[in-house]
Design brief:
7-stranded mixed beta sheet; mainly beta; about 50% strand
Length: about 110
């Protein structure tokens, strides 16, 4: 299974971030149980943001739940992350994961 994240790169504070994770080599509806989004701010450790199960249930970090939404398009075998009201501290590398697999990540910089 391979995962490839993509996104806008640079986003302004208070705007909404939309990231895509394209999955190949396995179905998001049958492979693994959880598909997750994690992020790593510069100089800090990995932060679990949330997950979506093969049945479509979603779970979120309590600290991000009010601003985060994870969804998927089964036909496109693609996962999505949407985060609104972006803050400077949301800057970092964003990854999607499935099982032990992780994409290369996409850089998100929040700056005015």
């Amino acid at each position: 299974v391979q995962l490839q994240e993509s996104g806008p790169g640079l986003v302004k504070p208070s705007q909404t971030l939309s990231l895509t994770c394209t999955v190949s080599g396995g179905s998001i509806t049958t492979s693994f149980y959880y598909w997750t989004w994690i992020r790593q701010p510069p100089g800090k450790g990995l932060e679990w943001m949330g997950a979506i199960t093969t049945s479509g249930s979603t779970f979120y970090s309590p600290s991000l739940k009010s601003r985060t939404s994870i969804s998927r398009d089964d036909a496109k075998n693609t996962l999505y992350l949407q985060m609104n009201s972006l803050k400077l501290e949301d800057t970092g590398l964003y990854y999607c994961t499935g099982g032990a697999m992780r994409g290369q990540g996409t850089q998100v910089t929040v700056s005015s």
